[in-house]
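Worked problem 6 (solution included).
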Amino acid sequence: MIVDFKNKENTNKVGNKAKFLIEMKNKGFNVPDGFVIDSDTYTEEIINNNIEVEIANYLKKLNKDNISEISKDITSLFDSFDFSNTTRTEIEKRLKDNKLYAVRSSGTKEDLDEYSFAGQYQTFLNVKKRSVLRKVIECYKSMFSEVILSYFVNNNISTDYLKMSVIIQEMVPSEY
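Solution. The predicted structure is:
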C-alpha cells in the first residue's frame, strides 16, 4: 500500500522514519509532501519477482565468514527486479515531472530499542521522476549490504521479517 503523508492511518507498516515524518506533517510541522511505499508492498513485490524464498534461504546461511558473498548473492537478485503494474501506476501517479525527490529507506528494523541502523541504509537526493522506481530498488538492495548484514551478525540480531518501506519526498530547493 502507498501511504500519503496526509494519511493519519495505516502508519504501522512504514518504518519509524516515515512514521515520524507523517506524524510531524499532520501536527502542522513544515515537512515537504510525500508518500511511503509500505513494507507490505516490499513483501508483495519480492513475491511477484519470485525472490522471496531465495532471500530467505541466503539469510539462513548467513554467518561471519560469508557476509560479503551473501550480500552479493542477495543484491544480485534485485538486478532484474521490476514492479507490478499496479504498484508502478500507484507510485507514478503521485510523481510530478517538474519536481525532484528524496528517495529514502525506512527499514522495519532500522531503529530498534537497543540498536540503531541510522545512516546505514540508502538515501538518494535530487531524483527525477524517471529514476524514482530504480532508486526504490536500490533502497531495497541496501537492506542486504555488507554493512547491514555485518551489523546483524555482529550484534546477533535476527534477520527474520526483514522488510523495508521507502519514503518518496519532494525536495526543497535551497539557497545555501
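Discussion: The longest strand covers residues 100-107.
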